[in-house]
Every structure is written in structure tokens, then in C-alpha cells.
User: What shape does this take?
Amino acid sequence: MRIYIFDPIHQIPLEEAHKAGDVIIWNEDGIKEYEDAEAIIVRTKTVSKELIDEMPNLKIIAKHGIGTDNIDLDYAKEKGIFVTNTPTANMNSVAELAVTLALSCARKITMSDRLTRQGIDTLAPKELTGIELTGKIVGLIGAGRIGQRIGTILRDGFGMEVSCFDPFMSEKKANEFGFKKYDNLLDMLKDVDVVSISVPLTDSTINLIDEEELGVMKESSILVNTARGRIVNEKALYKALSNNPKMYVAMDVFEVEPPKADNPLLSLDNFIGTPHIGAATEEALIRMGNTAVEEINLVSSGLKPRYIVNQL
Ligand code: NAD
Assistant: This one.
């Protein structure tokens, strides 16, 4: 197998890739020649129709991560190329980040750090008064692998009640987790204290959180987005946060990535931003890379990969 790795991966799976075939790895200018690729590993690189057409021998596009919105799935399917992802490799890491961000909002951690560094005359100044999560209600938008993990951590660790909005999750499954299922997003947003987004970016989730949705949320609510940037309309969010200092929002993902320093949201005290670090832990990086290489090994042996995203 001629394996091209377009984005940096962890050293351990890189060694596995070398055992799996001839490996050409990323460089600072990007890989320029890849016509003979049979397998590619990508993280954030856009895999368009045009790029696919430049690799006539391609058999598998192995996504290192979960979201495959950077890959033209339909065209890959048309060409008989497997697209795979690593669905379980990073769910703990992303869920742990979502919980960290919710707590950081509740306790104003980034503002506390900034004020402490600047030098402060009073202990626990009034503007750093936070809220507890214990006993509050979290609303999950998307209750798949990551959403479920966030819900169970907050339920078991903080005694939070968990609600969810996920049209593809059955009432029975929601009940098994002890989650209250809503069929209407606005109804859930009105009732909960913390909102956490874990849905894929699709035509139906672009701007899922817009002016109307932000408008019905509780005044002192917390919103965490670790899914994809365009799911929240940033203009509407800026307006909502500017008008309501009691609302706190944390996002690991942005409409434009990497996020620019002049993004207006970053000028607000009630906003926390991180640069798409959800899956950036040692453990997840190793698991994602290893899974991507395992999928390539299966295809190389003439077998079907385990995590096919574009059912061929
Ligand atoms: P998953 O497929 O297990 O779960 C997604 C859930 O969203 C499913 O239960 C699905 O039914 C639900 N859903 C789909 N459309 C919906 C809609 N319109 N409204 C409500 N629910 C809807 O995926 P996951 O592993 O939980 O990951 C979720 C997303 O998180 C990924 O698609 C990816 O974009 C993002 N992600 C981000 C990072 C990061 O670094 N920040 C890392 C991994 C994944």
C-alpha cells in the first residue's frame, strides 16, 4: 500500500503505518505529489472531488477523528473508495473537554486567571462570583457517543438532571440513560441551565443555534460547543452575549478555523475559546492514529474496514 499522511499524527501510529506500507508523510508545504496514493490519512485536510480525482488508485480515505465534513463522501462513494473514521477513539477526550468548559464558564476560570495575573487587591472580587452545576439541568443537543458521555459524567459527578434533543435517539434509549428526551429544541432550551452541542455538521445542523434559540435560553445559562463551528451562528451569538453578560459561552470550534485573534467573540469576558483541542490528548491521538492504520490494513488485506462512513 502507498500510504500518504496529509496531517501530523502521533509517533506511535506513525510507526504502525510504516509497518503497513510505503509511507509518505506531511511536510510544511503540504504534500505536493500524491498521484500513486492507495490510502490516505487526513485530519483537517479538505478532501474534495478534485483531490480524489488526482488519486486514481485510491482505495481508502481514513479520517483521523470523527467529523467527516471535510471529505466529499458522496463522490468517494461514487468512486468506490472507502471513507472511514475513528468513532470511539476520542469520545472521552471531547466529553472531558466539554465538562471542563462548562465548569470554566460556571466558575469564570479564564477571567479569574487574567485578573490574578494582572495583580488583584481583593480576594474573590464580586465579578468572579460563579454558579454551581450541582443539581442543575444540562440539555444535550445530540446524544450520540460524546453527548452520552457528557451526560453521564455530569449526571454521576454533579447530580445534574440530563435532558436531550436528538431526533434519532429513541425514547427507550434516552430512558435507559436516565435522560429526558425533548422532541422540540426550543422547548428544551427554555428549560435547561447548561447546553452542550455534540451533533455532526450537516445541512440540518448549520446555524442550529441562532437568534431565536439564543433568545429563549435562560438569562444565566451556559452554552458549550465542542462539535463544529457553523452549528452556532457567531453573529447572533456575539449579539446575545453583548446584551446579556450573565450568559456564558465556551467554544472549541469556530466558523473560521484556526480562530482569528480579531474574532469579536474573543473580546468578550463572558466567552471562552479554545482552538479545536477536543481530541488533542495523548490517549486520543494514539487511538485515532492506530485505528486509521488498522482500517488501512484491513483494506490492504482485501477486507472491509470496520468504521465505514459512506456505506459502499
Ligand atoms: P455520534 O454520531 O455518535 O453522535 C451524533 C449524534 O447527533 C447522533 O446521536 C445523532 O442522532 C445526533 N444528531 C444528528 N443530527 C442531529 C440534529 N439535527 N439534531 C439533534 N441531534 C442530531 O457522534 P459523536 O462521536 O458524538 O460526535 C459528535 C460530533 O462532535 C462529531 O460529528 C464531530 O463534528 C464533533 N467532534 C469534535 C471534536 C473536537 O475536537 N472538538 C472531536 C470529535 C468530534
About this structure: The pocket of nicotinamide-adenine-dinucleotide is lined by residues 65-67, 87, 90-91, 94, 141-147, 165-169, 198-201, 204-205, 226-228, 252-253, 276, 278-279 (CB under 6 Å). The chain has two domains: 2-89+281-300, 91-273. Residues 95 and 149 are 6 Å apart (CA to CA). DSSP finds eleven helices and twelve strands in the chain.
